[in-house]
Amino acid sequence: MADLSPWVELGTVAAGAGGIGYAKARAPRAYWSLVGLPVTWGRFTWTYSSTMEVCGLTVQPSRFRAFVARNIARSEVRPVAPKVRRVSPTPTGLRVTLRLPAGLEPADIAASCERLRHAWGVRSVTVVETKPGFVELRMTGYDVLNRVRLPRRARPHDLVVPVALREDGSVFERDYRAVPMALTLGANQSGKSMYQRNLIKGLAQLPVGLIGIDCKRGVEQSRYAPRLSALVTTPEDAARLIDALVVEMEERFDLLALHGVSDLWELPEHLRPVPLVVLIDEIAELFMVISKKDEPARDRTVMQLVRLGQMARAIGIYLEVCGQRFGSDLGKGATALRAQLTGRVVHRVNDKASAEMGLGDISPEAVLAATSIAANRPGTAVAGDTSGGWSRIRTPEISPADAAAVCREFAHLTPDLPFLAPFRPVSQIVVPPMPAVPPRVKPRPVTE
Predict the structure, then answer these.
(1) Mind listing the pLDDT tens digit for each residue in 52-82?
(2) 14-140 has which fold?
(3) Are strands 182-185 and 317-323 parallel, antiparallel or unpaired?
(4) Residue 377 burial class via C-beta count within 10 angstroms: exposed 0-12, middle 13-18, buried 19 and up
(5) What DSSP line would sit under 161-202, residue for residue?
(6) What share of the chain is helix, strand, coil (3-state, %, to 5)?
(7) Cβ atoms of residues 335 and 328 within 8 Å
(8) Residue 352's pLDDT is what?
(9) pTM here?
(10) Who's near 363: CB < 8 A, 6+ residues apart?
(11) Does domain 160-428 have CATH number 3.40.50.300?
């Protein structure tokens, strides 16, 4: 009988290679931990100095260092690269802390991210400044946004709602205390509605009041009615609701002045009004008018929104503005309103002007990233704020039925707000049964 050991060894190697290939396609996190991480760490260690020098991320050494190299170490004087302080593996990539030498700034490293990505064979490289003189390179080993699944520990809490996953594997959270007002843009089939569903699903689990403005006759937000304190579906009703919110804002400011504080969260808990989140589904519908006689009413509504955007943060009223497009051509007040919306999330858009309106004041690179989102990647977006930071994100897939089920489950958290009673969703209005009316004609029995 022939020796079968070579065939057994060949079969074992083939099975191992097949298993690695399957893990790379179906279990990328496991593949990264077993194969990708050691290979990338070794490549980074062996090629770090030469890569930084080729990418122009080195500076000339100080005179003292050059003197020591020439006269004491008897070695060649070479340019100085950022010093590696710490290398930390993560389940999705690698994080490297660098100490910048004099002459380099974080923007220099950020400008070379694409070259570093190709040099070290990773999916993406982002730069985060941790403290003066130190930056962190966050490398992602595989496409984290291919199949998005939020970690189990990502739960809504304290007006913080996890809604998406960043490309570096961290969770993107909508923090209303830090970023009170936000603008979300996206074309049809871009995933904007999915972003809203994830947001509403998280907000429904918190003790806040949700106010819906859906001028598309309520086709998007009416399914969430069990958890909404108010819902309007026409521009006329939206104008009346916004006026009511401005009146509520003024009354809450009177309450702050009465107790000598400047913020809602400084009030004692038993006196603190419930926070309100206003969800505007299609902002363009509030700007568009058919005839010139409707323009004064439109201008008043927009200016009231601008007032809310300017001052309502202090009294716990937050705006979440969504739309397919947002530009100055919408009409008077559009630019003023945008200036109050600190947070920006831009999905795939139909024109560059919309991406520039949402991200142009954040970063030119963010605009380029938003305009390069592929049509077959719904839910992918570029998120940033007016501080200048931005990142690619993608929301997990959730059906309208799932979001509606969460709203029904937490319907008991819907606060009872008397000033919103005229705008209460129809499904929440309990119609009393009609009393039985006795018949006017007395029945006469039929005899045989």
Answers:
(1) 888 888 877 766 665 665 566 555 656 778 9
(2) Threonyl-tRNA Synthetase; Chain A, domain 2 (3.30.980)
(3) parallel
(4) middle
(5) EEEEEETTSPEEEEETTTS--EEEE--TTSSHHHHHHHHHHH
(6) 45, 20, 35
(7) yes
(8) 84
(9) 0.81
(10) 384, 388, 390
(11) yes
